[in-house]
Write a structure and sequence with these properties.
Layout: H1 3-24, H2 29-39, H3 74-83, H4 97-107
Helix pairs in contact: 2-4
Length: about 110
């Protein structure tokens, strides 16, 4: 392998690593907890799966399926928060992108 090819491959690998590291750390769970308390806690328990107005969210990302039958992937959770449905209001016009990242980071800790 030529040195030029090696350097190109090493550069690509470094960029991929940086993207993964940035994606993994894009939300702050402490700030997300504050967002949860102000926007979600009135309807959802954080410390149990017991229903309040909506389902309790303890262990959300470990569930087999969410209440709407979807897998609890980050994309599906974000979509539900953005769009709402079944009595839940949508939050796409309420939460900023950073607030959503923070909220999802917090939900992953439940």
């Amino acid at each position: 392998m030529s040195m030029r090819r090696f350097l190109v491959l090493a550069g690509c690998a470094a960029l991929c690593f940086c993207q993964v590291a940035l994606a993994a750390g894009k939300g702050d769970a402490a700030r997300g907890k504050a967002a949860y308390r102000s926007q979600c806690a009135a309807c959802h328990n954080a410390d149990s799966r017991q229903k309040k107005v909506g389902p309790g969210l303890k262990g959300l990302f470990q569930w087999d399926k969410t209440a709407n039958g979807k897998n609890p992937t980050e994309a599906n959770i974000r979509g539900k928060i953005d769009e709402g449905g079944n009595g839940m209001p949508g939050f796409k016009d309420v939460l900023s992108g950073q607030e959503m990242d923070d909220l999802v980071a917090y939900l992953k800790t439940l």
